[in-house]
Specification:
The complex is a heterodimer of chains A (about 120) and B (about 110). With about 120 residues, chain A is mainly beta. Chain A has no helices and eleven strands. Chain B has strands at about 5, 10-15, 20-25, 30-35, 45-50, 55-60, 60-65, 70-75, 85-90, 100, 105-110. The chains are: A mainly beta (about 120), B mainly beta (about 110). At the A-B interface, strand 5, strand 9 and strand 10 of A face strand 4, strand 5, strand 9 and strand 10 of B.
Chain lengths: ~120, ~110
């Protein structure tokens, strides 16, 4: 049973460029959340997609946007890249958007973005 | 708002016990989690505790929850070199949505 898969694993961009990161959720999961993990810090919640709509959003600017497809996979887009956007971007999937018992998030290995 | 604090670094000798501590501000969470992150990898769920419990034991792992002091700890018995990693405590944001707030992580170094 495949877990959460993310692509690409590493990428390098320059300031001002745009990037798209992709995520396929664990089989049976329908909700995708994105987290940003800067070096030396814990993951920070960016947003969550459920039923192809953004349901919750963290404290991130509009340069960060996303999409969820009918097959539950998701994309994270970041426009006008800044040096500070360099981080590990983690995708997590779950069944449902609401906390339900020990319904926990399954994380992918992440996409490491370097902005030069 | 919600906040989570962890000590940043812990060094232990192989075979000893490790205790990783976490304090939090929000007390409405039903579950509290411990995640492990190895170098170059994503997050792996290690264990969790329900908020109406004081303790949970899972093989070498023991989780203690002190709701009064808003303190969560993870004890690893007989620590091995394979336990070297970063450990994060995490709990759901208020509002019931399945999204987590994480501490900054504690880097555990295990030496011979």
């Amino acid at each position: 049973d495949a877990g959460v898969t993310q692509s690409p694993t590493h990428l390098i961009k320059t300031r001002g460029q745009q990037v798209t990161l992709r995520c396929s959720p664990k089989s049976g999961h329908d909700t995708v959340s994105w987290y940003q993990q800067a070096l030396g810090q814990g993951p920070q919640f960016i947003f969550q997609y459920y039923e192809e709509e953004e349901r919750q959003r963290g404290n991130f600017p509009d340069r960060f946007s996303g999409h969820q497809f009918p097959n539950y996979s998701s994309e994270l887009n970041v426009n006008a890249l800044l040096l500070g956007d360099s981080a590990l971007y983690l995708c997590a999937s779950s069944l449902g958007a609401f906390e339900a018992g020990a319904n926990v998030l399954t994380f992918g290995a992440g996409s490491r973005l370097t902005v030069l | 708002g919600e906040d989570v604090e962890q000590s940043l670094f812990l060094s232990v000798r192989e075979g000893d016990s490790s205790v990783i501590n976490c304090t939090y501000t929000d007390s409405s969470s039903t579950y509290l989690y411990w995640y492990k992150q190895e170098p170059g990898a994503g997050l792996q769920l290690l264990t969790y505790i329900f908020s109406n419990m004081d303790m949970k034991q899972d093989q070498r792992l023991t989780v203690l929850l002190n709701k009064k002091d808003k303190h969560l700890s993870l004890r690893i018995a007989d620590t091995q070199t394979g336990d070297s990693a970063i450990y994060f405590c995490a709990f759901p944001f208020s509002g019931g949505y399945n999204k987590l707030i994480f501490g900054a992580g504690t880097r555990l170094a295990v030496h011979p």
